[in-house]
Design a protein that fits this description.
InterPro entries: Erg6_SMT_methyltransf (IPR050447), Methyltransf_11 (IPR013216), SAM-dependent_MTases_sf (IPR029063). By secondary structure, this protein is of the alpha/beta class. The protein has six helices and ten strands; from the N terminus they run ααβαβαββαββββαββ. Strands 1, 2, 3, 4, 5, 6, 7, 8, 9 and 10 form a ten-stranded mixed sheet that branches. The site of S-adenosylmethionine has 20 residues, from α1.
Length: 242
């Protein structure tokens, strides 16, 4: 058992998103691995970068950046990359990786996806990987990410699909396709129509360009899910209205 995990009781009178941010920050305290999520990027960061490049993007955002596995693809293709996360520990690891890679165009900072603090239309492209399925109000987060996306430019994000191999594993059901994993992390899994319903909530702000399944393999994550596993998500691409 990882020393920093599972010793705190669940605090049920707090919003799970608030508890989650504390738990996520704890999960980046590592003793065996140099980072939590491993070195390979998710495959769809390349898809996102292709969309952003097609828009002539210069400044792009990776939120949540986690400990930085998706930064190389962005840092090597765009003039400026902002990586933001609510976890100080994650940002610390991402900063070490960016420095080791010699990236001088990467800015890392703390931000909450519900209230990022960035000005309207700050970014030429926004990449949001593996957090919306952990949030209780994903549409509110998408709306905030669209606020900071430039009109006519793209936001790419994913939600966990019902076919994901981790669905229900070490998870306690707490509602309709919602679970608490390892007493710590909120998960919601989506079928295609539920994913479409989610993006329809922001149809006043953006057009849905694509909604497609993506599958990839993850290495073991210390203190979190300590075996290789497969993920399946619904990946959606939104184009902000001009
Ligand atoms: C599963 S990790 C994914 C990290 C990264 N996108 C990746 O693919 O490696 C989820 C991340 O979301 C961050 N997070 C959770 N709630 C957040 C919030 N409200 N605002 C910003 N980041 C948040 C966590 O700190 C964690 O780094």
């Amino acid at each position: 058992m990882h020393p920093s995990h599972n010793e705190r009781p669940i605090v049920t009178d707090l919003n799970l998103d608030v508890i989650g941010k504390v738990r996520w920050n704890d999960s980046y305290v590592l003793t065996e691995q140099p980072n939590l999520w491993g070195d390979p990027p998710v495959p769809f960061v390349t898809t996102a970068a292709d969309y952003f490049a097609g828009d002539g993007a210069q400044t792009v955002l990776d939120l949540p950046v986690g400990d930085g596995r998706n930064l190389p693809e962005l840092a090597e293709r765009f003039s400026t990359v902002v990586g933001a996360d609510s976890s100080d520990n994650a940002i610390g690891i991402a900063a070490g990786r960016a420095a080791a890679a010699g990236y001088r165009n990467v800015l890392l900072l703390k931000a909450d996806v519900y209230a990022t603090g960035f000005a309207d239309a700050s970014f030429d492209g926004v990449f949001c990987c593996d957090v919306l399925g952990h949030l209780q109000e994903p549409a509110r987060a998408i709306r905030e990410l669209l606020r900071i996306t430039r009109p006519g430019h793209h936001l790419m994000a994913n939600v966990f699909a019902l076919e994901d191999s981790t669905r229900g594993v070490d998870m306690v059901p707490i509602g309709d396709e919602t679970y608490l994993f390892d007493d710590r992390f909120y998960f919601r899994f989506y079928d295609k129509s539920a994913a479409k319903e989610l993006v329809d909530e922001v149809e006043d702000a953006a057009d849905l360009v694509a909604l497609e399944p993506v599958t990839w393999t993850e290495p073991p994550h210390e203190g979190y899910r300590e075996y290789e596993h497969e993920h399946v998500s619904w990946l959606f691409t939104l184009r902000k209205h001009t």
